[in-house]
Amino acid sequence: MEKQEYKYIFRNRFRTMASLSVYRTGYKQCTSEYSRGMEVRDFYILHFVISGRGTYSLNGKRFCVKAGESFLIYPNMQINYWADRNDPWEYCWVGFDGADARILMDTAGFSPERPVVRPSSPEKIHRRIMDIYKCRGQEVYKLISMTARLYTLLACLIEDAARNGPILSSHIGLTHVQQACDYIANNYSRHITVEDIASHANVSRSQLYRVFIKHISVSPLQYLREFRLREACTIMQQQPESIKNIAYAVGFENPLYFSTLFKGMTGETPTEYVSRYANKRK
């Protein structure tokens, strides 16, 4: 009997500055040979196949995916995926991005060379993605709830990967990235440089740049800037402060430069951002 197509999806209208944010989530029953067509996304999308089967193409390489398996779409890479003719797949998904997204997916055992993973408890992964969908919404507390459940999903995948081998040690340079990120998290409010970060991670500046690009697709300097901007967003959401004081509090010495970066990353000026959250608190 031919499967009846359906699709339910939620899209986040606000791509907030965060180490990890849910952009969209949903589930769908595909018709025979249904295809997205060749495309390039600007965020990650993790699919879990509930039933049926299909094919996933990443940068020209094809992977057969069946019920109980997950496949990861990477940003800025050419992809396509289509349902099987005789047994079209039903799947659920969560789209997300953030400064920590790449390192978390690496740790979970995914890579562009190995974008398909079969978890040991498929029903748990299915349930975790649907938990994200169930708490969908544009309100701030719902966006936070979706991200919290995304972390729970990734924790399950990372725990599963750890049982199959020491994922962290298999990725050369990942330990240096983690050391650098920890240093930034503890010292972002101070006047630190990329040289300081590299010294803490016991690597040269050029080597630190290479491992950052490999594992999280941004430079150490960009990661530091984005981390500071995320912290600024947190302050703005929680308490009224002058833009100048916020800039200083998160490690920027020039408030004008801070405002320029903030607008470039969020699409809003700091004043507009503060005003939007002030209105939500009323």
UniProtKB/TrEMBL annotation:
* Superkingdom classification of source: Bacteria
Q: Start and end of every HTH araC/xylS-type domain?
A: 178-276
**What keywords is this UniProt entry annotated with?**
DNA-binding, Transcription, Transcription regulation
Does this UniProt record's set of keywords contain Transcription regulation? yes
Pfam families assigned to the protein according to its UniProt record, in alphabetical order: AraC_binding, HTH_18
Q: Which InterPro entries match?
A: AraC-bd, Homeodomain-like_sf, HTH-like, HTH_AraC
List the molecular function annotations (GO) for this entry: DNA-binding transcription factor activity; sequence-specific DNA binding
Please give the name of this protein. Answer: AraC family transcriptional regulator
Q: Which species is this UniProt entry from?
A: Breznakiella homolactica
